[in-house]
Structure formats: C-alpha cells, structure tokens
Write a structure and sequence with these properties.
This is Decarboxylase. With 232 residues, the chain is α/β, with parallel strands linked by helices. The protein has two domains: 102 residues, Rossmann fold, CATH 3.40.50.12500; 92 residues, Rossmann fold (3-Layer(aba) Sandwich). The chain is built from nine helices and eight strands. The strands form two sheets. The chain has a four-stranded parallel sheet, sandwiched between helices. It has a four-stranded parallel sheet with strand order 6-5-7-8, sandwiched between helices. Helix 2 runs parallel beside helix 4 and helix 5 crosses helix 9.
Length: 232
Amino acid sequence: MDSSALLPGPPDQHGVGVVAPYDFALDRELWRWVPDDVSLHLTRTRYRARASDEAPVRTAVRAFGAVRPEVVAYACTAGSFAGGRNGERRLCDAMERCCGVPALTTSGALLETLRELDARRVAVAAPYPGRVTRRLTDYLADAGVPVAGRASLGLTERIWRVPYDEVAAMARRAAAGPADALFLSCTNLPTYDLLPPLEAELGIPVLSANQVTMRAALGRIGVRPAAAPAAA
C-alpha cells in the first residue's frame, strides 16, 4: 500500500511575512506566539541599515514576492517609532505598496493593543539608551498615551542575551507608577516566559514587542494567537 495515500495533508496554512532588523536573533520567540496553521516567512534588512529608513524595509518586503503572505509585519520597535507616528504610517504605506497586502509595525501594533485594553497610561521598560527610550515615550504621548513610568538598560547591541532576571528587575522599576499596562519594548529582548509571572506580580497587563506584533498580524487575517505561556 502506498503510505502517502493515508495522509490527509498537507494542511492549509496562513502566511505571515515578517521583516526583522539585520541583528534580530529571536525568531523562535515569534514562532511561539503563532498557532500551528500559521507559517512565518522571515527576512531581514541589510547589514547596518538604519532601522527607521523605508528603503531597506521595501527591499526586504520584495523577498516575499514568491511566498505571497497574507499580511506583512515590520518587527522592530525602535525602527518604527523613531520617525514618530507619521514615520510609522510611511513604513506601513511603503510595505503595502510593495506587497499589496495589509502591513503593520510593532509600534503601531502597540497602540492598537493599548486601545483594545483601554490602557490609558502605560509603563515602559526598554533595553535602549535613555535617549532612544525617550523617543518611545514621545511617540506614545503623541498618540495620547501618557507614560507613567519608564526604565532602560542603556544597551545598543546583544540585547537578545539579556537574562530574564535583568528584564524583570527593569520591568519592576518601570511599573512603580500608576500604569494601566506595562510594555516591554524591543523585539530582540527575551520576554516570552516572563509575561505571566510579571502580570501576576504587578497586577496589570504586561505586553511585549513580539506579542503585540504577532497579535496584530494574526488579527488582520482573522487568526487567534497561540495560547500564552501558563503562569507557574
């Protein structure tokens, strides 16, 4: 008997295109947010490209021409807030013109998620230098979301190597004020397993950059995200 005749597949799948910065190292964390019927098609911007520039993002999006994803996400927080809200919109427009499907960025996805949660004040924990973190608070303030507290680590590289205990300590410092939610910025910052224990400890929703990016991308195509990790 032909054993292949016993197999029902391959199953249908949804495709999500992800443009990441050249130094992105947390592919696996993105995958943990999507269900089994979703495939992530990742590509990266060229080496040392400035993260907020539209040209390298457009070039990266063209790599999706063969696989034709249903939605495209630019998975870079700093690169999508550095130009303010207008810059974020330009990035989305540039991606949509190149690929002809809905496009979003991490910073835009953050605003969507905060609106869905009715979170009017947010705490921000970011691995960046202080000046970059201030750009994020300016972006949020311009969107009508005041920042109730912030903390940063002052890093410019190897952010994916930050241990969970340092991320948690930074989160606690940021959340000392009266915030409705806490945002852990940077798609290259390890956060996945931290979210449930931090939410239980702080008593507010804790959002990560990769989480809001995948949530928004899947929402565009009517797919629910994979279940979040269970609290210990």
